[in-house]
Amino acid sequence: MIRRILPLSLLSLSLAACATTAPPSPVEVSRFVAQDSIARLGSGTIFVTAEGGLETSAYSAAVARELQRLGYREGPRTSAQQIAEVQVERFVIGASGQRSPVSVGVGGSTGTFGSGVGLGLGINLGGGSQERIGTQMAVRIRDRASGASLWEARAEFDAGRNSDLADREASAQRLASALFRNFPGNNGETYQVRNEV
Questions:
Q1: Which PROSITE patterns does this UniProt record tie to the protein (predicted)?
Q2: Cα separation of 128 and 148, whole Å?
Q3: Is residue 47 part of a domain?
Q4: Model confidence over 117-128: pLDDT tens digits?
């Protein structure tokens, strides 16, 4: 019987191929803008809020950075002209493409998007290498005095469980950057941002 021995270089290549993480999906963004509010967006004072404490702190911080970059100044809720409400949901996507019924979700409904989500706890029910972590972030900017919605957007993407972009900080920055690209954008537009952090 003849045994074939693979050179170490081929063996290490085959092991590396097994450990390779598929690239992250593009960020898919949808935006809604009240046409009469465009002139009011991107300036003045704003207060950023998100329910969920540590679970959402990276996302609200990323949103705050983008808003400051656009020209807003952060202020206290009682005196801010506008309020930015951040909602985040993280979930596991199995090898079959099905989302795990157990997810991390925080925040309430955001007007147009309309799905209420309660604070939840993420539980890993599987653990296969093909699992991906999906993250969806929605932001609604409203007028503090009247409560009227001025701008809303939602962004979503997924990355391999072992990807750097599965990390909360990295996914928060990627989503916030895509969400506020060419702000405020056009009412009802959808677009994709590919492989950018």
A1: PROKAR_LIPOPROTEIN
A2: 44
A3: yes
A4: 333 334 444 445
